[in-house]
Amino acid sequence: MATVSPDDAASAHPRVEVLGNIGPNWFASVMGTGIVAIAGATLPVHVPGLRGFTHGVWVFAAILLVALIVLVGGHWLRNPRVARTHARNPQMAHYYGAAPMALMTVGAGAVLVSGDLIGERIAVDLDWVLWTAGTLGGLFTAVSIPFLMFTQLHVEPDAAFGGWLMPVVPPMVSAATGALLLPHMPPGTGRETMLYGCYAMFGLSLLASANIITMIWSRLVLFGTSGSTRVPTLWIVLGPLGQSVTAAGLLAAAASTGAVDRRVSEAMNAFAIIFGVPVWGFAVLWIALATALTVRTLRRGMPFALTWWSLTFPVGTFVTGTSQLAVHTHLPAFRVAAVIAYLGLLLTWILVTVRTARGSVGGTLLKLPPSSDPVRASKDAAADAN
């Protein structure tokens, strides 16, 4: 009886092998799609037809999540070597944080968007399952990936990029989405513990992100940008900024429902504004800088890659954070800013979704990168072509 070599098997099923190249970074598409639904559902203004639109987007995100879990999870079960290869890659390893955030994004959307589609009880139960799985996974990546960086991964002096934030941002997403579950908990110690646990994850992610953002700023000053498809990851900096403003606002609102005594609740509401407005200001500055650097790179020729999804979820968190400031300050300026930012999010999401679909059908996004060499950063004076 003839035997079939692994090479022959691979050539016999090329599509299966190509799908095996789908890594954890693909979960960013679920994040970017789900946040469109969440941001639309939480806008501080009423727009006719927006509710139905967010329903459709959430369903799309949920289907996409299931498909990626089957594809990525199934391939990793059959070939664990792939997962180990990703974990040892100094650039890909950070994107293991995308899967937990994708879970929590779809879970939050279930409560905010799909309650009237699948029923409030089912929506809340689904959110609990996805939030729990995402929180555990996010806490794991927040510890394990930095540990790998500290002990095993070889990191160049100019290596800091937005992707470094991916493993440490999930606890901030847990804090923001966990606030949505607090009103569904019975009053008492459990609800209060959940509230303070969310604040603890808020601090964990905020301080870790602040360190990384400082390193990204330092790399830009000392070395410049890579001038490559890594440039869009600069937008990931908006993620912890916008999500922290969102979390502060949502946790303050949840505290007002009786989770803590009145004096603590009032302090948390004050913190949502005192913390939120300055961070929002820095986020606006970063949007200006990231826009300028992205346009500069596009003019020099930047091909499409999955890193373009960095233009969606982080911007979506800026929208939700702005909406929270509109709720807490009652200022029309924040309502206007939220609507403008949401329009920008919609346009970007449509563009990236279409380009991703086209690249997936054509197979260009399913191929392994041509080189695993480190991405080099440079300034115009050093190497204008890079």
From TrEMBL:
Which GO biological-process labels does this protein carry? transmembrane transport
Residues spanning the signal sequence = none
Provide the Gene Ontology terms for cellular component: plasma membrane
Q: Is the Transmembrane keyword given for this protein?
A: yes
Q: Which InterPro entries match?
A: SLAC1/Mae1/Ssu1/TehA, Sulfite_efflux_TDT, Voltage-dep_anion_channel_sf
Q: How does it sit in the membrane?
A: Multi-pass membrane protein
The subcellular localization recorded is:
Cell membrane
Per the record, the major location class is: membrane
- Where are the membrane-spanning stretches? 26-45, 57-77, 97-119, 128-149, 161-182, 194-217, 270-293, 305-327, 333-352
Task: Write out the entry's keywords from A to Z.
Answer: Cell membrane, Membrane, Transmembrane, Transmembrane helix, Transport
Q: Which family does it belong to?
A: Belongs to the tellurite-resistance/dicarboxylate transporter (TDT) family.
Q: Tell me which PANTHER family the record gives.
A: PTHR31686, SULFITE EFFLUX PUMP SSU1 (PTHR31686:SF1)
What is the protein name stated in its UniProt record?
A: C4-dicarboxylate ABC transporter
| Native species | Mycobacterium asiaticum
